[in-house]
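ok so I'm stuck.
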Amino acid sequence: MGRGVYMDIGKKGDSMEQFDFEQITRNLKAMRVKKGLTQEDVARLMNVTVQTVRSYENQPQKLDLRRIVEFADLYGCSPRVFFMD
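replied:
not stuck anymore, here's the structure
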């Protein structure tokens, strides 16, 4: 599943290091706020700690594609949204 989603997000041969993780984290936070959710809400819905959600929104290196897809599912959007300017 992850590979198929990844290929949909990037181009064949792209690696995660080629993406702008700071942009991704900005978009994660913006989408959370747009959906009217707190970090506590997201933590509960994703079954993680609030500190984990904070780290995803503030430390881009903590993210992997699996988590990006989980956020997209939670927010009802395509993972592509997090990669856009």
